[in-house]
Structure formats: C-alpha cells, structure tokens
Design a protein that fits this description.
alpha/beta, MutS, DNA mismatch repair protein, Chain A, domain 3, Rossmann fold, 6 domains, 5-stranded antiparallel beta sheet, 22 helices, 25 strands, 50% helix
C-alpha cells in the first residue's frame, strides 16, 4: 500500500492508537509498523486472531501477557562468550516466566481460540533454566548465598571476619576515646577506620586512608587490624570471582537455549500485538468484516474511526454490484470528504487485520492499492497551483490503477474553469468506469450529476443539508444527487430576494428544472426517512413492551414454581415429623400394654394423641372439596379458587353471558370460565396450601426442542421439561438441540451429568437425529 494514501487517509493515526495498547516495546514497534496486507488468506487469519483475542478479553477478563523485554541482544552477547549482567539474566528469566504463563492460559481445550492455541503452542517451556536463574539471583544487584556452596562458604567467612574486626575496633574506640573526634567506626576505601584527631596522630599508629575536608580529622586503619583487613579484602575478591563464575555459567546456559528463547520473544511480541488489536476493537466497538472474493463492498452504519463515536453520523455505502463509480454531491462541510476517508481508512484497517467500526454484515474486498487525491497540496517550491498539484497526482493514479484498486477523488476537476473542469472529470470517471475500477468522487458540478444519471455503471449520492437550521445532517443517501442549496442558504443568511431572483435568471431553464427535480426528490426522501424512523421507533417500543411483558410473565411463573416447591418441602417436613411422632407413640403404647401396672387412662391418652396427629396429617394431605359457583353468587372483590392449581384469586368482573369473567391471581390477570372456579372458605386462608403431584402434572411430549435459545434459556426449558416428564412417568425422552457450533449440546450434557432425575444420556443414533439430539433415560 502506497505511503501517500496511508498518510492522507490517516492510517498512521490508527497505528498510533493501536500502539498505546501494547505492553512491550517490541509490541509497540510492531503496531507502528503495521501495513495493510494484499493476501486474502493472511487477512482472514489476522482477523481470526483479533476475534479470538476479543473472546479471551471478554470471557476471561484480561490479557494473558505481562510486560517483558527484548532479550535478543543479551542472547547475542552470550553466544559470543560474554558474561551477562544480573539485570540481563533477570530479564531473560522474566521472559521465560511470561512464556510459561501465556502458554498455560492459551493452550487449553477451547474451541473458540484455535489460532491463539496454535500460536501459543510454539512457546518453549524452559522451566529448569528459569528456576536456576531465579534461585541464583534474588535482586537486580544481588546473588543468593545458595547460588553455590563456594559462595556460601566465602560469605560465611566474610561475616566472621567482619565480626572480629568490629569487636577489635569497639575495644579500640573505648580505650582511645580521648584521641577520637567521635566514638564511631567508619569505612574508607573498603577498610575499617577510626576518626582520629589531627593532633593525636602519633597516639593511634596505623595507615591513613582519608582526611576530612577541614583537615582536623584523619581516618586511620589501626596497625593491629591491617592483617585482618587484608584477609577481608582477599575474601571480597574471592566472592566477586565466584559471582563472576556463577554469572558466566548462567550466561552459557542461556546461550545454549538461544534459539528457543528467541522464538519465545517473537511469539510473545506477536501475542502482544494481537491483544492490542483486540483492545482497539473493543474501544471502538468494532466488528469483523466479511471479506469478499469479488470486487465489491457494502458498509453498514460505518463510522470514521478517528471521530468521537458519540457525535459521528454512521453511513451506509455500497459499491461494485450494480455500479463501480459513485459521485457524491452536496454542500460544503456536509461530510463528503469524511465519507471518502471512511471508505478508504476502513478498507485499510480490514486488510491490516483490524476490526472496523461498523455494523455486522459489513462486506469488504481486498485491494492491491488504494489511491486517494484528497486535500490541497499546492507546492510553492515546485510552482504548482492547487489544480496542478491535484492533476499531477491524478496522472500518476491513472497510470497505475487497475481492476484491483480503489480510487478516491475529492472535488474532482476543481481549481480551474468549471466547464473545462467538469469535462475533465467526466473523461476521468468514464475511463475508470470502463475499466471497472471502484471509484468514489465528490463534486459540486451539476454536469457530473447529470452524467451519473445517464451513464451505466455510475451512481449518484448526496449528503443532506437542513436549510432551516443551515446545518448539515451528515447523512449519506445513495441513488439521489445532492443540491448545493446556495440560493436557499444565501436567502436565509439575509441576502435580499432581488439578488436571488436575479441570480436565477442566469440559470438555463433545463438547469432550473433539474435542480427543482432534485429538490423535490430530496424533500420527499427526507419525509420518507422521517416516517421510516418513526415506524422503527414504534416497532422498537412495541418490542420493548413485549419484552417487559414476557419478563413479568417469567417472573410470575418463577414465583409460582417457587411456591409449589416451598409447599412440597413444608408438606414433606410435616409428613416426616408425623411419621416420627406416630412411630414413637406406637412404641409407647406397646410398652404400656406390656406393663400391666400402667393405668388405662394413660394408654387412652396416648391413643388419643396418635389420633390427633393422624387427623392433622389427613387435613393437610387432602385438599378441600371444590365448591361449585353460580353466577348469582359471585360479586366483584370475592375470593375464589382456581380448580386447576388451587391458587386463590380475586374477582375483577362479573360473569358475561358465556359465563366468563376476569380474576387476578397474584400479579397475573386471567380471563377464565366460571366452571374453572370454586368457592374459597375463610378458614382456608389461614392454612398453608399444599399442591399435590397431580396438580402440576401436564401432558408431556417425548421430546423437547430448545433450538434457537441461548444456553441459559435452553437449560431452564430442559429442567422444566424433565420435571414434567418425570411426573408423567416417562422413562426415555429426547432433547433436540441441533448440531450448529456445539454450544447447546455441550452445555446441556454438562448440566444433565448433575441432574438428579437423569440416570444416563447418550447422543442420538442414526434415524434419531444423531449429534443434534441427546436421548435421556430418567430414573
């Protein structure tokens, strides 16, 4: 892709935005070097990687990659025999750790990220090298004592030597207090010293290592400590030599694994780049475009990616099917140039593997080159006017453009005599149209509007302008030429009408009729658009009302099912308690019968207690008999009972001639027949309602179809169906989930593993639906 188009269409700004999401310097460099690709397979692969990274960000919360450094220069030095610094080895260890974690997160059983899984599979695991570096190095300038037995022994000797020296010095400080400036021990040039007064120099024999700035203090190493100081110095030299040997050993290990570590660095850089693309896509609410094989495009609600999404007006534009050249007309500042740049920039982004700010269903094609002649590039140095600058660029475009190119012209033919300019523009567009090169051009020339109307393969488009508010709406309309609105705008701005009338006389009758036709078409189109928007709004409101109604019904149904479950649970508790108490009383009666000394009134008392418990159980076990109602008995506000569920309801209206009336059960209003109701006694209000098994049984089919539902909805529907099937005594049923991508099948089967009513399940056999059906055997 030519650099001029990249600069004019501002693709470099997209690269800058992309680089801000990169974690590593290598990732940022790769983002800034991004260019559109010309190979369809490579573009599809790049788009797939971006889509998978978006999936990871959305469903796993964050990018799997952490900060790492480019360690290739370190590896190059190590290969040449150099000893790496502690910092360099730590950066290599960090790189190995990041590689290990990225591989662990991306290389797993996930059918939605095959490309990322394949990329991450190329990461080498060098756990032993990583552990050895981490065990030896504990800080940016510190080696662990345990890095080697020799180092541990040397440092132990250093500590002992330091202790001996300090003990000896403490004794000297106490015995030579009068000769010291301060009773402290200090270090100069790596040797332990005492701060001795200048006049007491002879009283403290030793080696002078330093002097204070005033000259009043000499820092003397006592002669008695020189030998121990020399020993400490030798130990420090041995320590440095051992550290150098350890670093050299670790550097050699890194050199031995140079190929694997370098490969990891390249893969981490690419993964950083891919997740930067994903984060950019999420920030601009981008989608993956469909890449077509033929030379055509169709942008649906496309937005310019560099404009704020809150204020930019999306546009629909298509090219290549019934026409290859699009002529956009309309007033200045109406959005013509933005439309040109939107098409060009979005095409570049798609070919670079980036998701684009548009709606789903957007289709693009692969261009070998995108040519753009946009903006004023006059050159004083080369003595080129605006027209000459544009024409020089157009000449180059015409020489190199072919059927695989996209050509964008802004104000084609402008900057010179309008008659000659429009003639040149028609000739250029005719040449490109004959060669079927996709072209979009903006213009103010009326001749080009007429040319587009009369020429096959060329179509008009326009940007709207609101004459009342004197503001553009930035909405693009394909198929209708634009009107400049110069007279209307001038009149609204205060130009006297006599000037407007005089100006109209200079236009030919054909030009006036043509402009009037355009104005009429534009007027009716705007009316149609407004009516369409109203209809769409009403449709959206209707859908929202429907959604809320369904949500209310679902919540009411859930409350009803919860009430049934609660009633069943309470009934079970009461039954268990009754059984326990009955068994206890029976055992007590048996014992009383064996013991003849127990009075009979005590035995009768226990028998009466057992009868009370059984009568209580029978009261809850058997529902009240339904009491039929007659129309004369019903009044508004009465409490009645629904025979089908036993639920109490309130009468909202009197029965009509057909015997139907409205009642309200909880939050649900129902229209029922009087035959479906019975009387409700006041005493029943104080008792808990228990719903028997037969109350909730419904006729169950042998299969449940959940196709078209999402996973959560499908699992709820499956649970509801299995409950009903179990109550109806079915032993084997089928769940129809379809084949598709397998999400429903896997989710439902995973749920069936834990379902208490399921004994086993299997996929359908030949003739049963195969992979699209799961056959369930119930307990």
């Amino acid at each position: 892709m030519n650099d001029r188009a990249i600069r004019i269409l501002e693709f470099d700004k997209i690269r800058n935005m992309l680089s801000e999401y990169a974690i590593s310097d290598m990732g940022r460099d790769k983002c800034l070097a991004l260019k559109p690709d010309k190979n369809k397979n490579a573009i599809e692969n790049a788009q797939q990687e971006t889509q998978e990274a978006i999936y990871v960000l959305r469903f796993k919360g964050r990018s799997p990659i952490n900060s790492f450094q480019n360690v290739k220069p370190h590896l190059s030095r190590a290969e040449k025999g150099a000893t790496l610094s502690i910092r360099a080895l730590m950066e290599i260890s960090t790189c190995l750790g990041v590689s290990r974690k990225v591989r662990a997160q991306l290389v797993q059983e996930d059918e939605f990220t095959p490309s990322l899984r394949k990329i991450a599979s190329g990461l080498y695991l060098l756990k032993e090298l990583e552990n050895e570096i981490n065990e030896c190095i504990i800080g940016e300038d510190s080696i662990a004592d345990s890095a080697s037995p020799e180092l541990m022994n040397i440092r132990r000797q250093i500590r002992h030597c330091n202790e001996r020296i300090q003990n000896r010095l403490n004794n000297m400080v106490n015995s030579n207090m009068n000769y010291l400036q301060e009773p402290i021990i200090t270090i100069r040039n790596g040797r332990y010293c005492l701060p001795v007064k200048l006049e007491s120099r002879r009283n403290v024999p030793g080696i002078v290592h330093d002097q204070s700035s005033s000259g009043a203090t000499l820092f003397i190493e006592p002669l008695a400590l020189v030998e121990m100081g020399n020993e400490l110095k030798q130990l420090n030299i041995q320590e440095q030599q051992e550290i150098e040997r350890i670093l050299s050993h670790l550097s050699a290990l890194c050199a031995d694994n140079e190929f694997e570590i370098s490969a990891n660095v390249d893969i981490l850089c690419h993964i950083d780049f891919v997740f930067s693309k994903a984060q950019l896509a999420l920030s601009m609410e981008g989608i993956r475009p469909n890449i077509r094989d033929d030379k055509s495009l169709n942008l649906i609600k496309a937005r310019h990616p560099l404009l704020p999404k809150e204020s930019v007006v999306p546009c629909d534009i298509w090219l290549g099917d019934s026409f290859t050249t699009l002529v956009i007309t309309g007033p200045n500042t109406g959005g013509k140039t933005v439309t040109l740049k939107t098409v060009g920039l979005i095409s570049m982004m798609a070919q670079a593997g980036l998701h684009i700010p548009a709606n789903a269903g957007t289709q693009l094609t692969v261009f070998d080159e995108i040519y753009a002649d946009i903006g004023d590039e006059q050159s004083i140095e080369q003595s080129l006017s605006t027209f000459s600058s544009h024409m020089s660029n157009i000449v180059k475009i015409l020489e190199t453009a072919n059927e695989d190119s996209l050509v964008l012209f802004d104000e084609l033919g402008a900057g010179t005599d309008p008659t000659e300019g429009s003639a040149l523009a028609r000739a250029i567009l005719g040449y490109l149209t004959d060669r079927k090169i996709l072209t979009i051009a903006t213009t103010h020339y009326s001749e080009l509007k007429a040319y587009a109307l009369s020429t096959e393969g060329v179509e008009n488009a326009s940007v709207e302008f609101d004459v009342e508010s004197l503001r553009p709406t930035y909405k693009l309309s394909v198929g209708i030429p634009g009107k400049s609105n110069a007279f209307e705008i001038s009149e609204r701005l205060g130009l006297p009408k006599r000037f407007i009338k005089s100006a109209r006389q200079y236009l030919s009758s054909e030009e006036l009729r043509f402009e009037d036709v355009i104005a009429s078409a534009e007027h009716h189109r705007q009316i149609a658009r407004r009516e369409k928007e109203k209809a769409e709004q009403m449709y959206s409101e209707a859908l929202e009302i429907k959604r809320k109604s369904e949500e209310m019904y679902r919540k009411a149904e859930e409350k009803y099912e919860q009430a049934i479950k609660s009633a069943k649970s309470e009934a079970k508790k009461l039954l268990d308690k009754t059984k326990r108490e009955s068994a206890s009383i029976i055992e007590e009666l048996k014992r009383m019968q064996k013991e003849s000394k127990i009075p009979w009134h005590e035995i009768n008392k226990q028998a009466d207690r057992l009868g009370e418990i059984n009568s209580l159980f029978d009261t809850h076990k058997k529902p009240d008999n339904n009491q039929p109602l007659s129309p004369e008995e019903i009044e508004i506000g009465d409490t009645v009972k629904l025979n089908s569920t036993g639920t109490q309801a309130t009468v909202l209206s009197l029965p009509d001639k057909a015997g139907r009336l409205s009642v309200q059960a909880g939050q649900i209003k129902l229209d029922v027949s009087i035959d479906m109701l019975s009387g409700s006694q006041e005493s029943a209000k104080k008792q808990r309602s228990f719903v028997s098994k037969s109350t909730v049984n419904k006729a169950a089919s042998l299969s449940c179809d959940v196709r078209g539902l999402n996973l959560e909805e499908a699992i709820l529907e499956t649970d509801r169906y299995l409950d009903n099937a179990t109550m109806n005594g079915l032993k084997e049923v089928s769940i129809i989930h379809g084949k598709g991508s397998g999400i429903l099948r896997k989710g439902i089967q995973k749920h069936l593993k834990k379902h208490k009513q399921v004994e086993e399940y299997r996929l359908g056999r030949f003739g049963e639906g195969e992979d699209g059906v799961t056959v369930v055997k119930l307990r």
